[in-house]
Amino acid sequence: MEDIISQNVQTKSRKQSGPLKKIMKHWQLYLLILPPLVILIIFKYIPMYGVQIAFREYNAAAGISHSPWIGLQNFKDFFQSYLFSRLMINTVVISFYSIAAGFPFPIILAIALNEAKSKLFSKTVQMVTYAPYFLSTVVMVAILFQFMSQNGLLNNTLTLLGLQKIDLMSYPWLFKSIYVWSGIWQTAGYSAVIYIAVLAGINHELYEAARIDGATTFQKIMNIDLPGIMPTAIILLILSSAQILNISFDKIFLMQNPLNMDVSDVISTYVYRQGLVSAQYSYSAAIGLFNSVVSMVLLVIVNQISRKYSETSLW
């Protein structure tokens, strides 16, 4: 009898500590979460209803639900397009180039600033490297053109030195390097802030122990700094891998010209031309959906690889 009573008491207590009671107990926290959750649903999930136009021959007059269903035809048209290979190659090459070249620089900058003896020098360098991030893309590209154009600062300097002018923006083979390295210059300082914060959180007793053991600066970096920031670096690398096909449209578009179109045309600029310029909404939606699916697959694959070979992963 006592066992039955105790079981009833335990069952009643479990019911009382159910999800609803937890919500009522911490209602302030759930109230704080409500606005961003509503925004997420309204602007991220509800618009997914329109994704179906990728499988329809969309007609604005008929609306989404009444437009003819054509299945995977838009996807087939994209895969069979003569531009498909060029778009994929340009997009993947620029993305991999950006990740491979840009990934180490924030780490190197953060470690260098962390090891700087003068706090004034460290803060000054951090401010100078952080400032370009606040430049808009339009201003950034305008600076590139002013610096590298036929009558820009670089060519004026070459003229003063008695050398021949070089219009770097007109050489297609230089486009990818100009795009990537200007992006590194603009974002390295901002990206380094994350690693600086991680380095600030490393236990200082480790540095004291290394100093007592006679470790050099290089040994402290290799055995304390790098292992300390590696989990954060892996997470950022996983997130970057999901953006391989999502190259920023605005900078590429502003830097494009007829001379470099063969190497600068990527998926985002092609979607712009097909969707907004040519009004092929279904076709451009299909390309965008393909882009999103590939990004999700890459994210899962890279996360699983990281999870298998290291202790860090998104889930």
Chart the SSEs and their pairings.
Layout: H1 2-16, H2 19-25, H3 27-45, H4 73-80, H5 84-102, H6 104-115, H7 119-130, H8 137-148, H9 153-160, H10 175-200, H11 204-212, H12 217-241, H13 249-255, H14 261-264, H15 267-277, H16 281-309
Number of structural units classed as domains: 2
* Gyration radius over CA: 27 Å
Number of strands: 0
* Main sheet properties: none
Structural class category: mainly alpha
Which class of the largest domain in CATH terms? Mainly Alpha
Order of helices and strands: HHHHHHHHHHHHHHHH
Could you explain the architecture of this structure?
The protein has 315 residues and is mainly alpha-helical. It has 2 domains: 2-55, no CATH class; 73-309, MetI-like (MetI-like fold). The protein has 16 helices and no strands. The longest helix is centred in the C-terminal third of the chain and has 29 residues, at 281-309. It is globular, with a radius of gyration of 27 Å. The model has no long low-confidence stretch (mean pLDDT 86).
